[in-house]
Design a protein that fits this description.
Layout: H1 12-47, H2 51-67, H3 80-101, H4 113-121, E1 124-126, E2 132-139, E3 142-148, E4 164-166, E5 178-181, E6 183-185, H5 196-201, H6 203-207, E7 209-212, E8 218-221, E9 226-232, E10 234-236, E11 242-244, E12 249-254, E13 259-261, E14 267-268, H7 279-286, H8 288-323, H9 331-343, H10 346-356, H11 363-372, H12 382-410, H13 414-422, H14 427-455, H15 458-464, H16 484-493, H17 500-524
Parallel strand pairs: 5-7
Antiparallel strand pairs: 1-9, 2-3, 2-9, 3-4, 4-6, 7-8, 8-9, 10-11, 11-12, 12-13, 13-14
Organism: Billgrantia campisalis
InterPro entries: MalF_N, MalF_P2, MalF_P2_sf, MetI-like, MetI-like_sf
Function: Part of the ABC transporter complex MalEFGK involved in maltose/maltodextrin import. Probably responsible for the translocation of the substrate across the membrane.
Length: 529
């Protein structure tokens, strides 16, 4: 006799079978929805010319469909989200950055060639000497626009200047763009013209008007007092070039530099991205205005990361050794106080130190002036600024080293110290012969990770010094306290040209340096990768 489901009266095994069946269909429906959404993203990015993002989501959607539909790949379903996240948030940005480093991508080379051409063709200019003064007159609850004046002549193919024009009554409450015809008028409408403040209030209406003069060009608002013929500046030609009507010159597209250029070599912005090969990398090494600051920042980056690891390790190790001293009372209190800096968010501590090191009102200079009569220029002297960075970063990093060293020291068998005491060994002997040799090997991978972190410690530089003081003579924004990562950020987002290609080349070099150094240090320390 079967045990039945209380609500539906079905056998228990059949109810379980239906539940599993519905669960499978629900899972398949979810996977199908995700695949359709990803394919929609592929189409959207492709239509917008973003082929790299289209390719990313195509690979992601295809792999999702394959992994979750083939039974032979069932074991890979559990790790797929992690692999997909690695590809989207790590591998793809890295490949995208490397790709940009081989282009001239920048704020002046941002759009596609088609969009650049369309933008140039949309530019207009005001015909010289063809401005009409205008005034607004009330016509009941509406207004009329009256145009007069100018210095046009009949051979301009425009209406004569001596003749005035007036529009039909216009509704001030309708600022939508529209085309309005002009009628010849010997005199202005009856009444006084509206004062300037009411003209300004009606500016939305006036800017949306396109006035059609009899046998003449279209007139548009060219200022608070004038309407003028606004003509298309560029004319497209069959060979792909553009003719500049205003300056009477021809613009030719140059696919090597990504700009339209004139006969005399002038580049017309904006441009479009093109491949430049290794130009960004060779510029770093051959341009003296970039090579000098880059090498200076390169050396300081290594020194900053190495000295930070050294100082934090020394401070953390000494404090951890003191906390293991048997005669020390209140260890729990000291341990809590020493780890407190680790619990405070780094950006808060950095901003507090920035105020403390203030050259005019900071507590550090007040104490130094009281005791020694000096007021160091922490933010204007390059060496003092670097010293300040090391002091602050040591304070931020020593609790991490303290925790590591405490854990490793406590794992050392006490028998070794007792045997050392029997042989007459003291604290210094124990330090050099037992403690350091036993903790350095397991500590090495963590020291390498700390070096890599400080190699790219952008937050500290951005919040404390901003890279200042500047390096004189540099053609790019570069400071004596900049690290390579902050130098890259300033080139990409703070420089007037926003040279993303050059910044991407430096970012690629940073990645290769960090990856190479990490691999070398791991091999030298004989730690299995």
């Amino acid at each position: 006799m079967y045990t039945t489901n209380a609500s539906r009266g079905l056998p228990r095994h059949r109810s379980r079978h239906l539940t599993e069946r519905y669960g499978r269909w629900a899972g398949r429906a979810l996977i199908a929805t995700l695949v359709i959404a990803l394919m929609w993203l592929v189409l959207a990015f492709h239509l917008n010319g973003q082929w790299m993002f289209a390719l990313l989501f195509l690979v992601l959607g295809s792999s999702l469909a394959v992994v979750f539909t083939k039974r032979s790949l069932m074991s890979h379903r559990y790790i797929f989200p992690a692999v997909a996240g690695l590809g989207v948030f790590v591998i793809f940005p890295l490949l995208y950055t490397i790709g940009i480093s081989f282009s001239n991508y920048s704020s002046s080379n941002l759009l596609s060639e088609e969009r650049v051409r369309a933008q140039l063709l949309s530019r207009t200019y005001q015909a010289e000497g063809a401005a009409f003064d205008f005034a607004l007159y009330h016509d009941g609850e509406r207004v009329r626009l009256y145009l007069h004046g100018g210095d046009l002549t009949p051979e301009d193919d425009l209406p004569e200047a001596s003749q005035g024009f007036v529009t039909a009554p216009l509704n001030l409450e309708n600022p939508e763009p529209r085309r309005v015809g002009l009628q010849a008028a010997d005199r202005p409408p009856v009444g006084e013209p509206l004062p300037m403040r009411e003209v300004i209030a009606a500016r939305g209406l006036l800017q949306g008007l396109t006035l059609l003069a009899p046998e003449g060009p279209e007139l548009r608002m060219a200022g608070l007092r004038h309407f003028a013929p606004i003509l298309d500046r560029y004319e497209a030609r069959a060979d792909g070039s553009l003719y500049d009507r205003r300056d009477d010159r021809v613009l030719t597209p140059d696919p090597e530099i990504g700009f339209f250029v004139t006969d005399d070599g002038e580049r017309i912005t904006p441009g479009w991205p093109v491949a430049v090969g290794l130009d960004n990398y060779t510029q770093i090494l051959t341009d003296p205005d970039i090579r000098g600051p880059f090498l200076q920042i390169f050396v300081w980056t290594f020194a900053f990361a190495g000295l930070t690891v050294l100082f934090t390790l020394v401070v953390g190790f000494v404090l951890a050794s003191l906390l293991q001293w048997d005669q020390l009372r209140g260890k729990a209190i000291y341990r809590t106080l020493l780890i407190l800096p680790y619990a405070v968010p780094a950006f808060i501590s950095i901003l507090i130190f920035k105020g403390m090191f203030n050259q005019h009102f900071g507590e550090v200079n007040m104490i130094l002036e009281t005791l020694f009569g000096i007021r160091p220029e922490w933010f204007t002297d390059p060496w003092l600024a670097r010293t300040m960075l090391l002091i602050v970063n040591t304070w931020l990093g020593y609790p991490y080293m303290l925790l590591l060293c405490m854990g490793l020291i406590q794992s050392i068998p006490r028998d070794l110290f007792e045997a050392s005491a029997v042989d007459g060994g003291g604290p210094i002997t124990n330090l050099w012969r037992i403690t350091l040799p036993l903790i350095l090997k397991p500590l090495t991978p963590l020291l390498i990770a700390a070096f890599a972190f400080n190699f790219n410690n952008f937050v500290l530089i951005a919040l404390l010094t901003g890279g200042n003081p500047d390096i004189l003579g540099a053609s790019t924004p570069a400071g004596t306290t900049d690290l390579l990562v902050s130098y890259t950020y300033r080139i990409a987002f703070q420089d007037a040209g926003q040279n993303f290609g050059l910044a991407a080349a430096i970012a690629t070099l940073i990645f290769l340096l960090v990856a190479g150094l990490s691999w070398l240090n791991l091999r030298l320390s004989k730690v299995k990768v």
